Amino acid sequence: MSEKHMHWSEWLAEKVIQEKKEPYVISGGMTTSGPAHLGTLCEFLFPSVIKKAIENRGKECKFYFVADILDAFDGVPVEMERYSKELGPHLGKPLCNVPDPTGQSRSFGDHYLDEARALMVKFEVQPEIIRVNEYYEQGKFDEHARFYLKHDQECRKIIEETSGKEEKKDWSPIMPICEKCGRIATTRVISHDGETYEYACDKDVKYTKGCGHGGKNKIADHRYKIVWRLHWPAWKQVFGTTIEGAGIDHHTKGGSEDTCKAITLGLMNREYHIPYRYGFILFQGKKYSKSKGTGMGVRQMVVLIPVEIIKYMLLRPDLEENIDIDPTSQNLLRTIDDFQEAGKLILTEDMSRADRKRLIAHNMSTDKPKWAVPFLDVLLYYQIYQDWNEVGRLTKDPEGANYLKQYVEAWIAQEFIPEEYKFKYQPNTKPATENVTKFLASLKSGMDALAIHNGVFEFAKANAIEPKQMFAELYDALISKPKGPRIGKLIDALGVDRVKKDFGV
Ligand SMILES: [Zn+2]
Predict the structure, then answer these.
(1) Domain presence at residue 129
(2) Ligand 1 midpoint to CA 176 (Å)
(3) CA of 155 to the centre of ligand 1 (A)
(4) Which residue of 29, 256, 317, 335 could cross-link 321, Cys pair, CB 3.0 to 4.6 Å?
(5) Is residue 456 part of a domain?
């Protein structure tokens, strides 16, 4: 099968198996410096499905998720603004050395790492999570730091050539952590002999300033971090990466992917892993902004829809496509419906590419579908009966209805239900019209939704009424609204006998 015909997780898995030797390792990571957004999910979701696709082909694959919390704390996220006073003095320090003002986690970087960790559990993704500061403390990056210091002029040349930007005169492969103030953002290396280095903490990085301290340290003391463009190729050696992806911004001309490749092949003389790139995750057409935050976050979204649906939204498009998430209730209903339809497809050789992608995205989103009943039916039945046992009985999917319970209740509580699906059965709030009474009287026990629906058209025709008019009168009589769920479905859900009784026909 050609690459074009497969879901991206499939062709990447094929590529790994064809081009690389075992053991297979997929790595990925991020700096956890603010609340999780949809892009955060991709950082662990995408590697996890590639791992799964490799495993589906009978091979083993390890997945390391690198939490880059030795990076500098460079800004207070909006939701932490109330702690600005406590956090301010820590700007410029590594995230893992900034206290968590909420007291929940062992550091500020861990606060958001723990949030990501909880999301991974919810999304059933189980990578080995690496707090990169521990790897530095254990000296796992030391040989790379020494190598880069030894070749610092070549490193600099490669970075300048691949980034297209000239570095400052005092550029260095490493960023020392100041022994006096603890900052990493404000230091610079003055001189080094490959092991020992002298540094000054005197940089002004706008959001904070150095303390003026000057000191001397050794690589073996593990009080440094390698600069990003060299840290990234180093971690691939540390973990033995076979495949790793990054957002399209790293892959543009001048991006860190070019540097990583040139360092690995040209300076380290090591084999290069398989890189892949993915598009931006947009929210209502806009890029996520760390300082502002954008629209509905992941936290709100997991309350409204099952994680399977969020996974499906992110896994269905082509890998390099920008994914625009617009979580209106209408769009979410459409996606839930599409997800359920995709689950009914059967994998065949000659199915269309679009269907194959939908089916694989569905299967990568869930091991076993947790509900079978259409989401809209559950919404309908619950609004009528307000009783989950009854909903389970009527939908003939009690487990599924129970699984969807928390979401439906959230839709109601947050008034998220689209207007046309929002209703309350309230018969006889006013006298029914003659048309309504006559029509309801014509219904027979045991008629299903479709028969009732067709019955409206037949009745309208026989009585020379516009069907539109007939529907409007029925909605008005049943739910006191001009519009609502499909009449056949609604009367069926209410029960023909019950409606007839309520209207005395
Ligand atoms: Zn300092």
Answers:
(1) no
(2) 10
(3) 26
(4) 317
(5) yes
